[in-house]
Amino acid sequence: MAKICAGRNLRTLQQSRYIIQVMGDATPKAPPAKTVLFQQQRPGGLTYRIPSLTYIKDGDERILLAIAEKRSTPCDTDAEILVMRKGKLHLNGTAEWSSIRELSSASLPKHRTMNPCVVREKISETLFLFFICIPKNVSETQQICRGKNAARLCYISSTDKGENWSKVTDLTESVIGRQIHRWATFAVGPGHGLQLLSSGKLIVPAYVYYIHCKCCCYPCPKYIRPHAFYFYSEDRGETWHISKPVKKNSAECEVAEIIDGSANSHVYCNARSSKGHRVEAVGESDRADFDRCNSARALVEQHHGCQGSVIGFPAPNTDQGGDMQTWLLFSHPTNCKKRKDLGVYVNRKPLCPSDWQKPWIICPGPSAYSDLTYCADLGLFACLLECGQKHENEQIAFVSFPLHDVLEATDN
Q1: Mean confidence (pLDDT) of the chain
Q2: What is the pTM of this model?
Q3: Where along the sequence do coiled-coil regions lie (predicted)?
């Protein structure tokens, strides 16, 4: 009997060790703490969606601007106006937040405001908040089916870190002009743009449903396809232009600047797709096109896709001998079927699409759109993300985390 018990104990001990070993290898790093900034009133009622996050270092002050759409219901056609909360970031990554404020100047009469996308011009310290305005009750689907764009390209600006905002500027005619006749609809971002370190060029990511073919002067829905591109300015926001599009079908996108080991600058675009994986495109910064495009097999998409965020940051000092000066961080739901388990991925060799590491899940459960920012002076990343208990549109929450946590989680 003693031998039998001993044998059982030995097997139990071996099984326990195996379980501990397996669990030790598989146990994920705990997600960062969340602070809810925007809360849905009730299911089907007032809802906040489409996050945009900006970080500003001003002397000893560290400022965060969290912007989102306010909607009367979760539906796109019920978007109303943009709202903002201003945060004071502390050294430990926590923040104190102001109350919700409506950005009333970010609007056109009888239009709804959508897709906030912020870019900061650092020399003049000007914030440009880009967005689109669409006539109320006109959906994206209606525009695509009719092949007739109804969206307007607009922005407001601030020179005092978001305290006061200018009147709205409508750039539709001056920037897009006659090209609009080939656009079924378009939008910016959403999320954030960037200013290139190499040249000071301002870039606002965007996408267009382009009409590739018309039949008897009428658009053919079969030949209306989405393509990512960007608006850009080479004179600090005085005038704006349009880049060439990504060749592959691609929609909502964000961009980052990649500096390689030879100090060459590249514009990297990461875009939504309905083909099961994200679309990546790269072009040289001194041009306005993309000469390389591929599907990122390591970055999964849900059936209809979901917006994601990408940001470039300096490679750590430990990698100075490497062949890249820039690494990338990407945020997106990690589940291939549902919008849930939002995670962050690291790429140490951004010009190599196969180098994405396994994700660290920073928001388990329902989650969708997100926007990343890098607080360089603190070595912190911050993320504004959609999440909830039962549905991803219940809340928009703020999280922050150091690079060390990302590497610890993804290296395991």
Answers
A1: 90
A2: 0.90
A3: none
Can you say whether the dihedral through the CA atoms of 253, 48, 361, 364 is positive or negative? negative
Does residue 373 form part of some domain?
yes
Length of the chain: 412
Name every residue whose Cβ is closer than 8 Å to that of residue 58 and which is 6 or more positions away in sequence.
161
Using the structure block, give the residue that is written with the tokens 């690494």: 327
One of 301, 386, 392, 405 is an active-site residue; which one?
386
Number of domains in the chain: 1
341 catalytically annotated = no
Q: What domain range includes position 150?
A: 32-411
User: Rounded CA gap, 162 and 185, in Å?
Assistant: 29
Q: What is the pLDDT of residues 228-241, one digit of tens each?
A: 999 999 999 999 99
76 classed as catalytic: yes
- Select which of 76, 78, 234, 355 is catalytic: 76
Q: Is 20 helix (H, G, I), strand (E, B) or coil?
A: helix
Return d(Cα 68, Cα 83) in angstroms, integer: 6
The one-letter code for the residue type at 170 is: D
CATH number where 126 lies: 2.120.10.10
User: Does the annotation count 386 as an active-site position?
Assistant: yes
Interatomic CA distance for residues 293 and 273, integer angstroms:
13
